[in-house]
Amino acid sequence: MFDLRDLYQQVIVDHNKSPRNFGKLDDCNHQADGYNPLCGDKLHIYLRINDAGTIEDVSFEGDGCAISVASASLMTDALKGKTVQESQIMFEQFQHMATSDLSESPDEKKLGKLAVLAGVREFPSRIKCATLCWHTLQAAINDAASPAKTE
Ligand code: ZN
Question: What are the residue ranges in the chain where pLDDT is below 50?
């Protein structure tokens, strides 16, 4: 039988093995660090936002567990070409998914590929691994002086 969890697992393994948008973005105009002390995940997000408020490019560097790297890879893919405002809505939807009840199916129409991370709900200690990149994104958009922390 087709198992959705296997598919989710495959996507996470793939994004962890070959993360998209990994590396420094030389012409970025926003950046921030993020740290998840629970797991030891570290991320740095680079963003280029144009005057119209569109995320033209985004990349990340870092060192962390498979979930944190796959989540950052999927997030950066999803953000390109979106406005900062749209990124805020995605962040809310992602947060909602990551903390929602297991009986609630992720809204794949809204979340797209990000829905593969719904599996973290079964492992509460991994939720912060999955949301770290989104907190770091917030810090980068706001040009926060101190690193984003999940704690
Ligand atoms: Zn982690």
Answer: 1
Please give the distance, rounded to the nearest whole angstrom, from the Cα atom of residue 66 to the centre of ligand 1. Answer: 7
pLDDT at 85: 97
Q: How far is the CA of 40 from the centre of ligand 1 (A)?
A: 6
How do residues 38-62 score in pLDDT, each as one tens digit?
999 999 999 999 999 999 999 999 9
Cα 128 to averaged position of ligand 1 atoms, centre (Å): 7
**CA-only gyration radius of the chain, Å:** 14
Query: What does the pLDDT read at residue 34?
Result: 97
Which position has the token pair 């810090």?
139
pLDDT for 3 equals 63
Q: Identify the structural domains of the chain with CATH numbers, from first to last.
A: 4-145 (3.90.1010.10)
- Average pLDDT in the chain: 93
Distance 62 CA to ligand 1 centre (A): 11
Alpha helices in the chain (DSSP H): 4-17, 66-79, 84-99, 108-111, 127-141
Report, in this order, helix, strand and coil percent for the chain, each rounded to 5. Answer: 50, 20, 30
The CA 4 to ligand 1 mean position distance, Å, reads 22
From ligand 1's centre to the CA of 50, what distance in Å?
A: 31
Cα 69 to ligand 1 centroid, rounded to whole Å: 8
